[in-house]
Please model this.
Amino acid sequence: MIASQLQRDLTKEIGEILRDLRFKDAQGKEVVGANGYYQQLPTITEDDDDSSKFFPYYIVRIQDGETKDDDDPWTVTTNILLGIYDDDPETNGHFAVLGMIQRITDRFAAEPLLNGRYRANQDINWALQDEDTYPFYFGGIEIKFSVPKIERRDPYA
Model:
C-alpha cells in the first residue's frame, strides 16, 4: 500500500530535516538529531524500562485516507508527533519544539513534493501541548498528502 511507503519516506525525510539539531536525552547527555518511529513509540518490554529513553523523538503516524472519486488521488492525513527532554529551566523546551515544527513546516511549505510521489497540501496544522509536562515537551504537526491511486480497471473495456 502506498500509504505505508509514504510513512517510511516521510520518517526518513524528517530525520534529515532534524539531523543537525542538538538536544538532551533523558539522562542529560547531549545528542544530535532525534529518534524516528512509525505510528507509536516502541513497546516497553522490561519492568525497568522507561519510555523516557526514547527522547528526543518524532513519530510519523498515518491517521486516515480518503478519495472523492475515480480521478482524484488519495488524501492521506499524517501526524508528526514531537517529544524532547529539557531540564534546564533557562531554556524552556517549548522553544526547541517550535524550532522543530518550523523546520518541518517550512520544508513542506517551500517544497511540497516528497520523493517525486507525494504532494503536501498547504493546509498544514501544528500545535504545542497545552499543559505543563516539565521536563518533557511535546508538539505535533498535521500534514495531508496527495498520494497516487491505482486506476480503476474496467473488465469490459
Remarks:
- The chain has two helices and nine strands.
